[in-house]
């Protein structure tokens, strides 16, 4: 299993990118959204990958976060959702959008993806709704690309650049990390995973830039309205 690819971009096509890893080129299929976020040929990049094995073909699919990779794996488990459909859903909504749509049971949001009909969208929500809290709790950030001069030619070691000054204090978590932390906090308060995930998803949809504390406050208002 190839779980991660890190190297230099050789070229980008409509549905895939070719990444050179020390002389070996990997063709990695990605959604439109992921491809748009990658650099230009010659730049370093890194993606988490999922390997699809068929009788006549091996295909790698690439994702910037573990959350997106996990949603791809789960979407592929739904009858009628292949790799192309999964990438269409993730490309249209992004991993946070998929988390929100499934946690809230919003199959219309899933249906907005190209090539996804209402029956398939409803099946996705019905089959994966119980999985949303677990995936949302992962809160994984993007895989880090190696620095421009840190891709080795002769060994597999990537050394981190030396720091000459203390790192600045981290900013408050937002996006997927904030949703993960808020979900964990609500579950610690005794809320069931499903209702906590639904409240966090709705709060995140109303305020996409909210930090953890903001999401917790908003979700609690939804769970226990005055």
UniProtKB/TrEMBL annotation:
Please name the SMART domains in this protein's record.
HhH1 (SM00278)
* Annotated GO biological process: DNA recombination; DNA repair
The principal location of this protein is: cytoplasm
Which Pfam family, giving just one, matches this sequence?
RuvA_C
Which residue ranges does the record assign to the Helix-hairpin-helix DNA-binding motif class domain?
A: 73-92, 108-127
Q: Which family does it belong to?
A: Belongs to the RuvA family.
Give the quaternary structure.
Homotetramer. Forms an RuvA(8)-RuvB(12)-Holliday junction (HJ) complex. HJ DNA is sandwiched between 2 RuvA tetramers; dsDNA enters through RuvA and exits via RuvB. An RuvB hexamer assembles on each DNA strand where it exits the tetramer. Each RuvB hexamer is contacted by two RuvA subunits (via domain III) on 2 adjacent RuvB subunits; this complex drives branch migration. In the full resolvosome a probable DNA-RuvA(4)-RuvB(12)-RuvC(2) complex forms which resolves the HJ.
What is the protein's given name? Holliday junction branch migration complex subunit RuvA
Native organism is Roseivivax marinus
